[in-house]
Amino acid sequence: MLALLGKKEVTNLLDKEGFRSNIAIVLSDGYGKVFWAKRVGQAAWQFPQGGVDSHESPEQALYRELHEEIGLRPGDVSIIQSTRRWLRYKIPVAMQRKSQKPVCIGQKQKWYFLRLEAPIAKVRFDTTDAPEFDDWQWVNYWHPIDAVVAFKRGVYRAALKEFSGHNQRLQLMHCDTGQSLC
Fold it and tell me: How far apart are CA 103 and CA 100, in angstroms?
């Protein structure tokens, strides 16, 4: 997306240190598993994420990205929690777009922990002309920390650690009602 924007628009999206505002989505099935998406044509997996446009709040960006990337609408999910602060990661120098000025050196992300409320059949990747994902799976809650690209591991660890209490409570709710093997 940055390559399509003019200098003024890119400047508005970056903070003074060169970090781009972004949201990240941890979608829970409510039973301790999280949504893990495979990038189109790659062997790379990650949580859905995307930039915050200059006219958007982080929550507005959350719902836009949720629909663009995995086809879900606001009524399909519940927000359980968001991170208390923005989490940052740096993009390795070799992967930075040096031709783009100013240079984006990384992402600062507001993370959201969501619970899926809709049937799983609502998940789809064809809501835009350029889908970001072509497959997905439910994985154990802590799996993404070791499975994501190395430079994102710190923010994944921080977000999942912050959300872990809510994840555990969701699991226990199902245990108490006999809806899951505990």
Answer: 6
